[in-house]
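Q: My collaborator sent me two sequences in one message, no labels, and asked for predicted structures for both. Can we handle them in order? The first one she listed is below.
A: Yes, handling them in the order given. First sequence, followed by its structure tokens:
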Amino acid sequence: MSRRRAIIGLSMLGGSMGQLVTLYQTGIISHLPDPPVPIFNADKVECF
């Protein structure tokens, strides 16, 4: 049962990440949130 919950949680996380990228690509939001690690820079990546 705990594996099922983990799979559902990961699926929800992936769906949320996809929704954020969709909002960014359609121009509804202008900045994607970055993890607090200096090597990540979402503004430098263009998804066109």
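Q: And the one she listed second?
A: Here it is, processed independently of the first:
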Amino acid sequence: MTGGQVTLTALLPEHAADAARLHILGQPGTFLTSLGPEVLTVLYRMLPASAHAFGFAAVDPQRPAALLGFVSATTSTGALFAELGTRRIRAFLPPLVRRFARNPALAGRAAQTALYPFMHGAPGDDGPSPAELLSIMVEPAQRGRGIGALLVAALQAECRRRAIAALDVTVDAANAGAQRFYGTHGFTFVRTFTLYGREMCLYRARLD
């Protein structure tokens, strides 16, 4: 898929280091960012290999190795977390142990993260589970070019192709800019919940 000087491809393991870098630039102060580039690189290397995750990378067709932005999602947050905590744990353990040794408080936040799949669902959910947008990041110098919109549109189209009826995203309640962005792209507010002592907002896009 191409838009102007931007080409969208599947998010691949070789994008992992650049995805980790963009994640840290795009979400300073969040739990995942606090785990550092080593852990995030492992995460973004594992996601494309999972049956429960998918995503897209935005690249310049003249420089396809460099990410302009990316989006990642999961068909089941619970199943993805279970996979990362079992089959993929050997890849995560060494960098996680090193990170927790330097900052023991992160272990408590990791335990809260493990409970996240049970916290964010919408009241009355009784049909097929929605997919969840995990992360969307754009290179700071490339913002304002519509790359984020291209990535969200590609993700929603892929969800429809997979017959997924809804796509969720969690946004920090203090992040008004992100809430406006998702509102512009078909997401509506569902409810708030608390994670890491902060108020979070659940938004959902209906795709059926």
